[in-house]
Design a protein that fits this description.
single chain, alpha/beta, about 425 residues, 16 strands, 17 helices, five-stranded parallel sheet
Length: about 425
Amino acid sequence: MRLLVPNSRNAQAYALIRSLRSRAERIVALAERRWPGESWLAHGAFAREVDRRIATTWPMDAWERGPRGAANAPAEGRYLAEVERVCEEERIDWAFPSVEGTIYVFARNCARLLRRGVSLVCPPLEVVERVNDKLDCMRHLAEAGVVVPRSLALSADSLREAAAELGFPLVVKPRRASASRGVHVIRDLDGLRWAHGALEKRYGDPMVQEYIPGPLDGGFLRVIGVADSTGTVLGLHVARTLLTLFPDAVLPPAVARSERHEGVAAVTAGAVKALGITGPFLLQFKVDSRDGRPKLLEANCKLSYRVWTAMADGIDVPRLALDVAARREVRAVEPARVGTVFVNQIELLLARLLHPGRAKTVAAIVREGPRVIDPYVAHFARHPTVSARWWAIFLGFALKERLIRRLRKAGPRGQR
């Protein structure tokens, strides 16, 4: 296999590079850039397992605005031409995109790449579009009987109606975005007007969703797995977030622990079937403090950026996903180990500095075993430049989020 790995700035790419190195004759990593020099932050491309790294243009902004005609947007066309040139030069026969924007671009050009001999590890376009449109995804799940938050389209003319139907607080988010970008918990109509205006400029009209009450620390479940071509779940890993860096954001989790949750597993199986997901998936649940039941907040047909936790507990998601895409006979793997404590050392250090009281609540758990630390600490000696680049990205993200939260406190009264 000669493997192309796009979006090497993301943690998913680094995980799959390490997972699939033994299967690949050659690995070529793409570093998509929006501004000069950004490709140097594509940490996965600097791993020793990568044979060549190539900077490319950025294709994903058009995806965030929603569906359009059959033709690629100009940025997507430029990117595909670069991808095709790399595939020809390197005789690439497999490509494994792992974040929403690149998955969409590769899926909509699947036939074009197949004609060049390039197979893809990604779902069909119709599944990608269904799942990546968060509102459409919620509607499909609700129709299939999956318990999800009530969700509505939101326009400038429907603000009062949405507020009256759902009540405050409520959640406003883009219909297409990744890594929780643009998600806001809103407390009143002024805040709702502000959120709609802020999101519409970049993403188009957003969606609004019922707020599920309850803390994220201890109440947020991340489900990682792989489904075969029939939608049957082959492997499943459930991790409960015990400490987040920011108390109102699911990203990033500083401490988590794997567990077995039969109810969540059953809902996951139904949701994956309903959406037609094939290959890797990520589902996110929040425990509703009103009835104690986990409610499905979001589904994704991609690798989780926390996929290393599933790999550490015995489910090698990238390898399983590749086998499914290659139509090899794949059997369900043994249940993942449970009780493992996963620690992101840098996130935990920042949480202790910013929120010492919250960090104390998990201090005893962090000392318990078995414990697994994140790969950027665990593999620092082998990949120091990879880790340094990742931490630069993460610290920039954390500082930006800290600044945004300060600005929000001084902003509209209903904004959070």
